[in-house]
Write a structure and sequence with these properties.
The chain is α/β, with parallel strands linked by helices. 37% of the residues lie in helices and 25% in strands.
């Protein structure tokens, strides 16, 4: 972690007067934050994240946190001697894996993040509230379907991912009730959903964040990851792009690996009513504050 005193834009270089126009821009606006990656395993970074989320609430923003937990699920499965396989970045999830995933995501991680927020907000009575998509029909899903071309026959074959779901409906009433309650609550959502038949499914956390941001008509969606943002063909950070430009990066092969699903999520969110999506490095101290409350931001902004 870098020294906060060296971080440009927020901690020391920016005065409240300079930040005020940006604060006013987000007053009473919803910002959905996807929190995940390696930063989740570092207590110091997690505490700093929680303090920044509390500050957003105190400044009049309505933050909603959606978290992942892939590394933690993998560690628990390894401990249990269960081997994981992945297809297009999605974990193939049998019943045993689903039980572990729900225990880790809805249990340990979700409640830990909510607790960090509550501890950080104790002085101002801001409180984290842990939820999953199973609460109050928040996230209804259907089984995710993926196909892959057989190398021999060249025909498309269906890949069974097990209990991996895609959101079909988001009912944001519970989250909105917490956002607009008299008490300053911050919803923290685990990426677990349930089908119409009552079956529990694991969901990609980026996908959940995008779907929830769309349902809430969020002003911004922040995808906190472990890279600076989206890079161009020369490896330089792209500060801003349109949905069309994001699609072209994918089609041209400039965007590769894990950046492809993040861009796809950003495109879907922007097209569903989110003001803009930002992909930024969540390990950078005060990254969210720098992005929202300074002129140049902290990552790559994708807008409609």
């Amino acid at each position: 972690m870098t020294d906060d005193s060296q971080e440009p834009g927020w901690a020391t270089a920016k005065t409240l007067a300079e930040a005020l126009p940006y604060i006013q821009r987000y007053d009473r606006e919803t910002v959905v934050i996807k929190y995940g990656g390696h930063a989740m395993g570092d207590d110091a970074v997690a505490k700093l994240f929680a303090a920044d989320v509390v500050l957003l609430k105190m400044l009049g923003v309505h933050p909603v946190v959606v978290h992942g937990g892939g590394p933690q699920i993998s560690a628990m499965l390894d401990r249990a001697g269960v081997k994981s396989t992945f297809v297009d970045g999605l974990r193939v999830t049998d019943q045993a894996t689903m039980e572990v995933a729900e225990m880790v995501l809805s249990g340990a991680i979700n409640k830990e993040i909510a607790n960090w927020i509550t501890i950080a907000g104790r002085g101002s009575d801001v409180r984290g509230v842990g939820l999953s998509g199973k609460d109050a029909r928040l996230i209804t899903v259907e089984k995710a379907v993926r196909t892959r071309k057989d190398p021999g026959s060249k025909t498309e074959q269906v890949i069974d991912l097990g209990f991996v779901g895609e959101p079909t409906e988001i009912d944001p009433k519970l989250v909105e009730a917490l956002i607009y309650a008299e008490t300053d609550y911050i919803p923290v959502v685990a990426p677990i959903g349930v089908s119409e038949e009552g079956q529990t499914y694991n969901i990609n956390a980026d996908t959940v964040a995008g779907a929830l941001a769309g349902a809430l008509k969020a002003k911004r969606m922040l995808l906190l990851t472990d890279v600076a943002g989206v890079l161009d063909a020369d490896g330089e950070l792209i500060r801003q792009m349109t949905v069309a430009e994001a699609r072209e990066l994918i089609a041209s092969g400039v965007a590769t690996g894990g950046m492809i699903p993040k861009l796809e999520t950003a495109v879907a969110a922007a097209e569903s009513g989110v003001g803009a999506v930002v992909i930024l490095d969540g390990r950078r101290p005060h990254a969210m504050l720098v992005e929202l409350f300074t002129e140049h931001g902290a990552g790559t902004l994708i807008c409609p």
